[in-house]
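Contributing new records

If you add data, match the layout below exactly. Sequence lines come first and carry their own label; structure lines follow with theirs. Keep one chain per record. Anything else will be rejected by the validation script.
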Amino acid sequence: MRVAATLYLTDETITPMRLARELEQRGFAALYLPEHSHIPVSRETPYPGGELPPECARMLNPFVALAQAAAGTERLGLGTNITLVGQHDPIDLAKQIATLDQLSGGRFTLGIGYGWNREEAADHGVEWHTRRALVRDRMAVMRALWADEPTAYAGEFASVRASAAYPKPVRAARTRQDGPLYGPRTLIGGAAGPKLFAHIAEYADGWLPIGGGGLRDALPALRTAWADAGRAPADLYVALSAVEPTEGKLAHYAELGVDEVIVQLPALGEAGVLRALDGLQRYVPHTPAPDARPVTSTDL
């Protein structure tokens, strides 16, 4: 089971380059970054975790930050946790994703979600009650642009003509009942339920829930929806986000067939994040080689 990391990376925290190199040297599998474009001051939407962390308004753009992380590493996976697809132009987003995936040698995982902040979404022109259908259509536009041959898509909320669009993501197409699925590994975040699992089976590669509650019941339901859609069992990927690990938790997740856990790092400066990594090192299954080159200030 892979062990990755996430944090609210901001203009006041450790830099993407430093963090990525530390993670790679220490044997972590990947770095996942979340997204908020802005946080409206006048807001009625409650934050799902209680009090809104101030870092939410200071987050770096995940694609720019991950591009820096990619440039300073060779093996570290790169992912979003999550991309708010409904708040992006899908043609432009498809280009950003394909470019990052190509330049990193296919290391990118696209975590997507529907969002929680109504006011933020409204500023992007998103009608809240249609956001799931909007994301589905925009993902379909991106899949069409990533296809091997020029492919058109026409939906209620987004469309694209058959187009020449390059670069292409590195990952090979996956088989499903509705035809090949193109693009990088895509994971959908959200609470367990039939609608979410149907969408995962239709246009994604797996599930990206927060934490691991209820997995013993949820995973069989997800695997059933996956099989019903004609997807290969081995292609399903499950990653748990924002995990505060213990040895017992990780053993439980591994027993259930979870592929990856993403541990939560604090949104601190360099010294604080490195201390947190020191404390988490015992959970990383593969430690770096003894002769791994240390990161120095000249690398930043």
